[in-house]
Design goal:
Layout (H helix, E strand, L loop, with lengths): L13 E2 L2 E2 L15 E87 L27 E99 L2 E3 L2 E8 L5 E194 L2 E15 L1 E4 L2 E8 L17 E3 L15 E5 L16 E7 L19 E2 L15 E8 L2 E7 L3
């Protein structure tokens, strides 16, 4: 039964004048005012609807509107609107607001807002958002299932995560799938995508894609690197685009696009890639690639499939095709096609060279067109067309141009519209308007005019030729010939006047065997006596007959073949026959049939010689 109600202003329990603890064995149903304890309040359940304060509050369960205590220890639960104190050790704390100036520890702490100077948690789970105003220190390991955003610094031995957004990261090792932030410094950083607005630096920075304002490290290996400036000892990337500068001792990759490439002080030790494009300078000991487009290319060795630019300078330049608007120079320059304003090199071997001026020790090419000058001690090729040609030794199959001057010119055939001059000129066939040389040796030469100190040839023909010393050869033929001395087996000039000539010995005519064909040519230039053996019925031509020329033709009909003489090259409706009653002769079935053909005006006439 209840004993009643006690109402007093203040109750103090003492023992001989000393404050004494009081144990309540039952239940205090209600304390309507404020309970202030200078010592300790403890019990299984302490419930206060307003406020409980004291130096130490200990119990299993506490439910307060406000709890103000220096320290509190509860083995079960403390809950209330506000829990404030210096030290709290609880199995569970549930409150709307909790403020502890020293330490809060417990198995589980749950609430809307918690402010602590420091906290020690054996296990700490955050369901919502946690804001940490100062530093977060994890003595063991920590992980975040969603994400962490830090405006200050995250540091530690190892930082691992799927995605991280940081202002600054300082760590020995980091493995992050996606990293974005202003700064990251690692001894080793590995990730799929590394994004940074400011700086990523470390001994090893590797990833598939990196986009940075600046990358600094001993080794950087990326599939793709994009940014303003990348600096380091080694940068390895499959592709890279940099708006400012890439520098390093060794830069290797498949594709690199740079405004400026700078490394190893003046250039790079090695630059290798499929495509290297730069608007300023690429230089180094070895610069190789599929395509190079540069304002200036400088290097000991440059090997490109295609080189395009203003100036390319180096010891060796190897490329399939190249177009340079200013200059290409080097000790060895080789390629299939080169077009240059100026080409300078010790050795040049091209399939085709086209340009204004080419200068070098050796120029080797199949085709060449030069509007200005080609000069070298040795120039060899198949076909050359030049305005001016200077060379000590020139060996061409064909040379065509205005003026060719050199010590020695060797070629199979040549056409010159102005002048060929040199100490020694040797070739198979030469056709010149003007030919000047100290010594000339030709198997065949057609000369409009020429001046030679000494010329020895097999056959010379032309409109006019002047020789100051001697002309010798098997056949000398022309319209006008003026010689100091002529030595030869035969000399024929159409416009020459001989007064009381003396001929000693026999006169020999050329005998020529025609190659059979459906419309074979009878050319007086091949010889005045010609033979043909027919392989079928034929229609011969006389394209090269000129008025006054004649040919004695001996025909073997083979096995009763015939000749038709109606081709228009003979004039009119064909050959006009002066024997056989005006008909073409019938060929003998055995032996030769002899026919004489001669041209008067525009008509070729014919006659059979001997009996049928």
């Amino acid at each position: 039964m209840p004993y009643g109600i006690i109402k007093v202003d203040t109750i103090t329990f003492t023992n001989n004048g000393v404050d004494q603890s009081v144990g309540v064995s039952g239940i205090v149903n209600n304390i309507s005012g404020t309970l202030t304890v200078t010592g300790k309040v403890q019990g299984l359940d302490i419930v206060g609807t307003n406020s409980i304060s004291g130096a130490t509050i200990t119990g299993n369960t506490a439910s307060f509107t406000t709890n103000n205590s220096i320290s509190g220890v509860f083995s079960s639960v403390v809950s209330g609107a506000t829990i404030t104190g210096n030290t709290g050790k609880f199995a569970t704390i549930t409150g709307v607001t909790g403020v502890f100036t020293n330490t809060l520890s417990g198995e589980t702490i749950t609430g809307t807002t918690g402010r602590f100077t420091s906290g020690i948690f054996n296990s700490f789970a955050v369901d919502g958002t946690t804001n940490i105003a100062n530093s977060l220190f994890v003595s063991g390991s920590g992980y975040f299932t969603s994400g962490i955003s830090v405006t200050g610094i995250v540091s530690g031995q190892t930082i691992t995560g799927t995605f991280g957004t940081f202002t600054t990261i300082n760590a020995i090792t980091g493995h992050i799938t996606t990293l974005s932030g202003n700064g990251a410094t690692f001894a080793s950083l590995t990730g799929t995508t590394l994004l940074g607005d400011a700086l990523v630096s470390g001994a090893i920075v590797t990833g598939n894609a990196g986009q940075f304002t600046s990358v600094t490290g001993i080794t950087a290996g990326f599939t793709t690197v994009t940014g303003t400036t990348v600096t380091g000892t080694t940068v390895n990337a499959v592709s890279g685009v940099f708006t400012a500068q890439l520098s390093g001792t060794t830069i290797t990759g498949n594709t690199a696009q740079f405004n400026t490439l700078t490394g190893n002080t003046a250039g790079f030790t090695t630059v290798t890639g499929t495509t290297l494009r730069g608007t300023t300078t690429v230089s180094g000991a070895t610069v190789t690639g599929g395509i190079g487009q540069f304002t200036t290319l400088t290097g000991v060795t440059a090997g490109f499939t295609t080189v395009t630019g203003t100036t390319v300078t180096g010891t060796t330049a190897n490329f399939v095709s190249g177009v340079c608007t200013a200059q290409l120079s080097g000790a060895v320059i080789t390629g299939n096609t080169g077009r240059f304003a100026v080409l300078t090199g010790g050795t040049a071997g091209f399939t085709t060279i086209t340009g204004t001026t080419v200068t070098g020790t050796t120029a080797n090419f199949n085709l060449g067109v030069y509007t200005g000058q080609l000069s070298a001690p040795t120039i060899t090729g198949i076909t050359g067309q030049f305005t001016t040609f200077y060379a000590n030794n020139a060996g061409f199959v064909t040379i065509t141009g205005t003026t060719v001057t050199g010590t020695t010119a060797n070629f199979v055939s040549g056409v010159y519209t102005t002048n060929l001059s040199g100490a020694t000129i040797t070739g198979n066939t030469a056709r010149f308007i003007n030919l000047t040389a100290s010594t000339g040796t030709f198997p065949t030469a057609l000369i409009t005019s020429g001046t030679f100190t000494n010329i020895s040839l097999f056959s010379v023909s032309g409109s006019s030729a002047k020789f100051t010393v001697q002309v010798s050869g098997a056949t000398i033929t022309g319209d006008t010939g003026q010689f100091t001395n002529i030595t030869g087996q035969t000399g024929v000039f159409a416009a020459s006047t001989l007064t009381n000539p003396v001929i000693i010995g026999a006169i020999s005519e050329d005998v020529y065997t025609i190659t059979d064909g459906a419309a074979f040519e009878i050319d007086p230039g091949n010889g005045s006596i010609q033979l043909i053996t027919l392989g079928a019925n034929r229609t011969p031509k006389g394209t090269n007959f000129t008025a006054g020329e004649s040919v004695t033709l001996m025909v073997d009909d083979g096995t009763a073949y015939t000749l038709t003489w109606t081709d228009a090259t003979w004039g009119g409706a064909g050959v006009v026959w002066k024997t056989e009653g005006g008909s073409a002769p019938t060929l003998n079935t055995t032996g030769y049939t002899v026919i004489v053909l001669w041209k008067v005006g525009t008509q070729v006439y014919g006659a059979r010689v001997g009996d049928a």
